Amino acid sequence: MEILRKTTNFVLGKRMVVFQNIRLSSTMSFQTSFAKKVSAHQSDININLREFGSSSLLHCTKASDKGLAKSLQREIEDEMESLSKEKSYFDGWEMTKSGADVKITKAFPSETISVMFNVNNSLADNYDDIEKDEYDGPPMSSRPPFIVEIAKPSGMKMAIECECFSNKEPMDQIDDEMQDDEINAGYEISSVQVYRDERLPTNYVCQALDRPLHDILMDILMERGIDNEFVDELVDFCTNYEKQLYIDFLVKMKSHLTEK
Q: How far is residue 254's CA from residue 240's CA, in Å, rounded to a whole number?
């Protein structure tokens, strides 16, 4: 009986050790997996970040309302120097703005063409780490997705959503099936929907576009002037307009900090 008890305790002891090892291994595996996810997330959020206080003034002030207000003033002055004030955009289009939302409209035979976009969260790097030392242009550009709405007199409308290509996207990473016209246009189509009068969240959105339909829609857009020159102008405008909104944000933040 004593031998059986010792044997049982020995077996249970081994199972406990094995169980503890399994728990330890699982814990370490979870921690490693979690660490990788955190690291990946940190990597993601460090992409396309605007450099604030690059003049080093921010790092020399105390963490107080007064110190931050001084840093904001320096940042405002630096951003104002690189702002294009005199340039005009989209000749022949009528533009309306509402904060970060922008809409431009023009007449086309038997149609009204509208292009809508929002410059929030639209900044993209213009170079990668390999090209950083050789690149001599602006570090970031605003490249928002945009929707082209084609309206008929009856009230029927077709909305084509497009994505701008990244300025730093290597040609060898572009889809092999992508046509030359699409690459030259500087954008690709991501979805399309057709509706009457108003675009609603309940409308069906076609996203799985086959190549023939995609190419026909590209032709439709380019016939209406949505080509590479238009996209270049859109990116230039958005980059400048986003900077205007950023400066306005800095001014309001400074005003909030200095209000007594």
A: 21
